[in-house]
């Protein structure tokens, strides 16, 4: 299968040049499903080893335009994990208490401890995306945040937190289809929000903010992957594969038993 492109540190690019529509090299949904099932099985083993090994945490950051598929990705990919070792955190408009602290305060609190997988549904990147597009702070403030984010992510990485960042990349036409489906399909009505239509009008401002965030904050220690996300089943496969590859690269191992088991007899 084809893996999703990763932004190389320092590279300039336009999101338009990245595909949104990809089947990841699968001939159909069934072929992709078979592969996803295998990767989910492998992820379960790797999660178990991550927990037993105890040296690392895995942090997954999910960002996307509205209707981009963050929830669907969590449902289809993260559902494979043992819930005891996987924590999903959704970041909304900061609470009164949160806004009295620096923007990374609430984020740091939610970072998974060693042995655990943490999933961020939205993240600290909102502070250079929605906050920038809606001019909630002056440019001089959000500009500094790229460096602050890189320093923060570096600190986490050096303390054993492996970070994977996925931008679920959909086209504007696909967003229109998904918004219409939320209006027409009764089981999706509850997801419809007029605010999403307002945000859609700011599509190009958001794309520009994403380009800057991905360029400024794709680092050696925490690179951004741009997942083509118009085709949901391909999106899930690419996210799962990137996670398998990352966890396999950690050289996880089960710790040695504390006593010589050959000497132990269970009567
Ligand atoms: P989603 O749209 O991700 O599925 P949701 O619809 O369940 O989530 P919303 O309340 O629509 O929930 O989404 C959270 C909102 O909070 C988004 O509009 C997001 O931009 C906003 N948000 C998140 N973090 C911040 C932040 N740091 N500053 C301002 N707004 C933020
Ligand atoms: Mg929303």
Rg from Cα: 20 Å
**N- to C-terminal distance:** 50 Å
The kinds of small molecule bound in this structure are: adenosine-5'-triphosphate, magnesium ion
By CATH's scheme, which homologous superfamily applies? Answer: P-loop containing nucleotide triphosphate hydrolases
Mean residue pLDDT: 96
Question: What general form does the structure show?
Answer: globular
Write the layout of secondary structure elements.
Layout: H1 29-53, E1 57-64, H2 70-76, E2 86-90, H3 96-99, H4 105-110, E3 117-121, H5 130-133, H6 139-158, E4 161-169, H7 172-184, H8 194-200, H9 203-216, E5 224-228, H10 232-249
Parallel strand pairs: 1-3, 1-4, 2-3, 4-5
Helix pairs in contact: 1-10
The chain binds adenosine-5'-triphosphate and magnesium ion (MG).
The site of adenosine-5'-triphosphate has 14 residues, from helix 2 and helix 5.
What can you see in these coordinates?
The chain has 267 residues and is an alpha/beta fold. It has one domain (15-251): P-loop containing nucleotide triphosphate hydrolases (Rossmann fold). It is built from ten helices and five strands, in the order αβαβααβααβαααβα. The chain has helices spanning 29-53, 70-76, 96-99, 105-110, 130-133, 139-158, 172-184, 194-200, 203-216, 232-249; strands at residues 57-64, 86-90, 117-121, 161-169, 224-228. Strands 2-3-1-4-5 form a five-stranded parallel sheet, sandwiched between helices. α1 packs parallel to α10. It starts with 28 loop residues before the first helix and ends in an 18-residue tail after the last helix. The model has no long low-confidence stretch (mean pLDDT 96). Magnesium ion is lined by residues 66, 193. Magnesium ion binds at residues 66, 193.
